[in-house]
Write a structure and sequence with these properties.
By secondary structure, this protein is mainly α. The protein has one domain (about 5-219): Up-down Bundle (de novo design (two linked rop proteins)), CATH 1.20.1440.80. The chain has seven helices and three strands, in the order H-H-E-H-H-H-H-E-E-H. The protein has helices spanning about 5-15, 20-45, 60-70, 75-85, 90-105, 120-145, 175-219; strands at about 50-55, 155, 165-170. Strands 1-3-2 form a three-stranded antiparallel beta sheet, covered by helices on one side. It is a multi-pass membrane protein. One gap junction consists of a cluster of closely packed pairs of transmembrane channels, the connexons, through which materials of low MW diffuse from one cell to a neighboring cell. This is Gap junction protein.
């Protein structure tokens, strides 16, 4: 999979982000996207081929693998990276709308098209809420699909067409579990950063509104 479009998107959004937002972009790009591309993708590359059960019953191994891993960790992680990045497109589109509007009217309508204020502030806050929501949804999804954030060494399967309970072994479980913990930790860090940026922007807006009212009152 080519991740160039995502890197281009994150680079574009970085121009309009706050300091906390730039940290979020750095965490997403360095600690999640690069780790996924460089290391994690190779670890899960042959997960189905390396999944072994102590039985030769035709179809049993495939059914057991599908039962315990309905969705591949790595594909779900890739989907998570895409989903938490796409709300940033809202900010890019809004800035592009402002710039096109200024070109159509051939005059300066905004102090800076990329400055976070007015309608762009609402768009930015919505993107933060969506990113936080996607992070939490995927964390819950990981937990529900795999019965916790763990990769067992051995799983017991009694799903048809297996004639009885069989033992199935997962390849490189310790290595996979380390990367899974890393995934969860970076997701939680991104949630904290998003909530921190959301609180900062709301607080800044409230202070700005209060100062405007205070100045008007004393004029």
């Amino acid at each position: 999979m080519s991740w160039g479009f995502l890197r281009h998107l994150l680079s574009g959004v970085n121009k309009y982000s706050t300091g906390i937002g730039r940290i979020w972009v750095a965490v997403l790009f360095v600690f999640r996207l690069l780790v996924y591309v460089v290391a994690a993708e190779n670890i899960w590359k042959y997960e189905h081929d390396e999944f072994e059960c102590n039985i030769q019953q035709p179809g049993c191994e495939n059914v057991c693998f599908d039962h315990f891993f309905p969705v591949s960790h790595i594909r779900l992680w890739a989907l998570q990276l895409i989903m938490v990045s796409t709300p940033s497109l809202l900010v890019v589109f809004h800035v592009a709308y402002r710039e096109n509007r200024e070109k159509r009217h051939n005059q300066k309508l905004y102090k800076s098209p990329g400055e976070i204020d007015g309608g762009l502030l609402c768009t930015y806050l919505i993107s933060l809420i969506l990113k936080t929501g996607f992070e939490i949804v995927f964390l819950v999804l990981f937990y529900k699909l795999y019965n916790g954030f763990k990769v067992p060494h051995l799983v017991k399967c009694d799903v048809r067409p297996c004639p009885n309970t069989v033992d199935c072994y997962i390849s490189k479980p310790t290595e996979k579990m380390i990367f899974l913990y890393f995934l969860v930790a970076t997701s939680c860090l991104c949630v904290v950063l998003n909530l921190g940026e959301l609180s900062y922007l709301i607080f800044k807006y409230c202070i700005k509104c209060y100062l405007k009212k205070y100045i008007k009152k004393h004029q």
